[in-house]
Every structure is written in structure tokens, then in C-alpha cells.
Amino acid sequence: MKGFVIKTLINAAAIWVAAWIVSGITLTGDDWQHKTLTVIAVALIFGVVNWLIKPVVKLFSLPLFILTLGLITFVINALMLWLTSWASDKLDLNFNVHDFWAALFGALIISLVSWGLNLALGDDD
Q: Which residues does residue 27 pair with via DSSP β-bridges, in sequence order?
């Protein structure tokens, strides 16, 4: 359970950094407490999307992994972030990814920040 909470908080921090850096990703709210709760909820949705949907997409896109030498991973990560934005919109959360390019740059930033924070905090799993 501790690992789940830490990974969710790491994803929340990474999503917040992506929303701060990428102009096509918006995270709005009245105050910082509302934004914090929103980004934690978005991180939970992002975790569920990556846990449930991403493996299926990777399985069906296996030939593209071989053809592109794994570069399709960036596109899949962007699509997962875009799907998270869609689900967040359906749940009335104030998180929005405006287009594919914002999703692509946001997914890259989220990957880098998550990797760095996992490296700094240590991964017990």
C-alpha cells in the first residue's frame, strides 16, 4: 500500500510539472488546495489507465514496437495522457490536455520527472 501511495504522489508531482511547463495542458482551480486534490485525482486516473489499458494497447501494437525500435512508446504514453484528460473531463476535474502535441510533450515530461523522483526516492518494488 505504501508503494501505491508513493507512486501516486510521484505521478501527481509529475503531472503538475507537465501542466506547469506545457502550455497545452491546463490544471485550473480556485486555490492551491483545490489544485492539489485535482492533481491527486488525476494521478489516480492516470494510474488506472496505465494499469488497465496500456498493457492491452502495447500487446496489440507489438509489431509497431519492433518496426519503430520502441519509439511508439512515446505515442502510446501520449494517448494514455490524452485518455486521462478525457476521463478527467467526464468526472468534472479541472485537468485538460488540448491536443496531441501537448499530450506528447506532457507524457515525455511526466516520464522524465517520474523517473527522476523514483530514482531519488528509491523504488522498493
A: 95
How many whole angstroms separate alpha carbon 88 and alpha carbon 96? 8
Give the residue ranges of DSSP H helices in the chain. 2-21, 32-52, 54-60, 62-67, 72-90, 100-121
- For cell 501511495, the residue is 5
Cβ neighbors of 25 (< 8 A, separation 6 or more) are 18, 19, 95, 96, 97, 98, 102, 103, 106
CA distances 53 to 8, 12, 46, 48, 84, Å, are 17, 19, 10, 8, 11
3-class secondary structure, 25: strand
Q: What is the pLDDT of residues 58-117, one digit of tens each?
A: 899 999 989 999 899 999 999 999 999 999 999 999 999 999 999 999 999 999 999 999
- Using CA atoms, how far residue 7 sits from 31, 51, 67, 89, 117, in Å, is 24, 12, 31, 23, 9
Q: Model's pTM, two decimal places?
A: 0.88
